Inverse folding.
């Protein structure tokens, strides 16, 4: 199991390469499940559909965070 590393400081600990559930993502980002599903439906947060299940790749979640980072 590989660990994803980022060159910039992450707001949460490094993630493995295992697929994440919507609950995992909302826990990491401290947002609601509705926000996660809306972002996935809009295509802003890429997801994988396995039947009725929706899963997220940790690297894509990190890219999502990076795209929404505001320089301060």
């Amino acid at each position: 199991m590989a660990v994803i590393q980022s060159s910039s400081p992450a707001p949460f600990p490094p993630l493995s390469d295992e697929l994440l559930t919507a609950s995992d993502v909302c826990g990491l980002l401290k947002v609601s499940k509705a926000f996660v599903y809306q972002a996935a439906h809009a295509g802003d947060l890429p997801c994988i559909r396995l039947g009725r299940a929706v899963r997220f790749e940790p690297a894509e979640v990190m890219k999502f965070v990076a795209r929404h980072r505001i320089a301060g």
About this structure: The longest strand covers residues 48-50. Residues 8 and 66 are 9 Å apart (CA to CA). Helices lie at 22-29, 33-42, 58-67.
